[in-house]
What we know:
Elements: E1 3-6, E2 15-19, E3 35-36, H1 40-60, H2 88-93, H3 100-103, H4 106-109, H5 111-118, E4 125-129, H6 137-143, E5 148-154, H7 160-175, H8 177-180, E6 184-188, E7 201-207, H9 210-216, H10 219-229, E8 230-241, H11 260-269, E9 273-278, H12 308-314, E10 319-325, H13 329-346
Parallel strand pairs: 4-5, 4-7, 5-6, 7-8
Antiparallel strand pairs: 1-2, 2-3, 8-10, 9-10
Amino acid sequence: MVGVHVGSASGRGAAVRIKHGPMLGFAAHCRPVGIELESTMKQLSLALAVSLTLAACGSATEKVATPEAASDQPAVVVPPQAAATIDPIASVLAGNWRSDANKARDPYRHPAETLDFFGVKPDQTLIEINPGAGWYTEVLAPLMKDGRYVAAIPTDASSEYNARNNTKFRAKLAEHGEVFAAAQVVEFDPKAPSFGADASADVVLTFRNVHNWVGGGNAPAMFTGFFNVLKPGGTLGVVDHRAADDADAAAIAKSGYLTTASVIKLATDAGFELVGQSEINANPKDTKDYEKGVWTLPPSLTLGETDRARYQAIGESDRMTLKFVKPQADRIFEQGTDSASKEDEKK
């Protein structure tokens, strides 16, 4: 508390004394020590001044309001975000080494979605079987820059057709050497295919080729070759023209179409396990009943200008997209044991 005492007017002068006591909310620097005035008027003036001082000091001890944030500042501070990671497949698909004609096939072949389904990663060892004109090579070779891309092609000596295709394929690689410099090419004998050292690849992919091997009679040997070159746990990805499930094998033998069940059997007979099927490359518009087979449709359009608009409106063929895995070593052993048991049962 603070006491204010005003002395009498007699004597040399009156005195006003401020008595100090404990005061809540009163800053120490605001406490007056003592004042003497020469006249009563001055004494009253001083009393008034003291009262004002006390009021001011009391206000000074109150909590100071925090000024409002500037209007151009966010209410919540957001930490800086890391730059978005560039999608490697999107960058490759936009590459200037790809022709406009090849890019026009993307909506039918869905390369980004297909490779994602197969689980392809840029640091893997990937073998593409029979790349043909190199449509997927333009995507896979630069995509696998942190790994290894291998194009497996049949030997030139296997047929004149293969020799011509191989010449065109090598020319493509040379044309864009800065993009395909790291791409490797291995040749294989279609009758006894070997695609590299056993258990050396993470992924084997083949696009629209199985129907040719079925027609040529070497499909089982090809799938065995895939199995041998893959590491345990490695992936085999297959895309091919899909026939109706109930299609007669003889009737479609030269159509370019295959039943899904027949391709699955080729793979599982070689030791693979089917782990996924996708409709990424399905096309319900494909009626699969063309006199010239699948080559009636784009991009071949083997009938030329005959009903061209009709076939272009259908688009590319309806395709199966199958993912297989080579079992781990212990599963391979179990499969071998199961097979031996079944053979024993037949005896």
